[in-house]
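call fold target=Synaptotagmin-2-like
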Amino acid sequence: MEVHYEELSHRLSPGTSCTNLGSSLDLASMADLEEENIQGSLRFSLFYDQLQSKLVVTVLDAQDLAVRDFSHNVDPFVWVRLLWAEREDEEQSSMQCVLDEWQTTLRKKSCSPVFGDQFSCTLAEEEVPRVTVRFEVRDYDKYSRHGILGEARAPLNSLKLSYPLELREDLQVPKKDMVGEALLSLKYMPTSQRLEVGVLKIRTVCHPNKTERALYAKTSITSNHCKLRHQRTKQKKRWEVTVFNEVLTFVLPDQQIRECTIIVSVYEIQPSNKSSKHLIGHIHIKKDKTFENEHWKLMMQSLRQPIAKWHFIFI
């Protein structure tokens, strides 16, 4: 069977930033996944071409997607990520990195859309068992964060891909994947209404074949999903553990500080290409009526003192 490697839709990494379809995905990733109405299925095919050392992923169609409560239709597209595990084992806690990611064409007003989008990625045969393909089906929203319609996953270590393999999977509630960890410090000074967020160290998994990269972290302070302030660190050359030792200071009214969410977003960039920004993952630290993060609690118990703690980074 002849397989064509033309990429029919948008390639999002490593060389490009998000396109218009992905413009709301940062906010969607930052929000807790609380969608309840997950239904329908996704059909896709996978094939590993040993002669060309290419993994070919084709998103075929979806069926019976849920319609969100405030809308009478759905505008679906599929976000595809190749997740590469740090270790080849079955541990769910194994740290991963995103090897490549793409998004399909948008299909308007269809609960059973046909896509037919094909993507490919160069991949050594011995790397295949470490890869999981994650398909996240989203409902496009021009003015707000995209809706979450469900996800399907295909761990390649359990599949025979020497010929095109077609699968249909029921959509599940999306899960977050651990892609790194960061040492952060927090300090709150109530008299001056200052919140200090220290970005000290970041550990990430980097595929050995990746060219030179740099990292930076953007810290956002939000309340009720509205961004109040944000600052970013300087970019540093990416190592297994990248040291920043930077403190970002935010001055906010006391009430906003006490009920806000701190979101630390870690980005990768090619130093020679400023438009190559690529999101690695997020950390959330918050205090609200129903939840109080342990680090937040320690900060409030030790006012005016910096409190450091490691946090997992999720995508």
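return ok
The first helix runs from residue 25 to 30. The chain has two domains: 10-170, 178-314.
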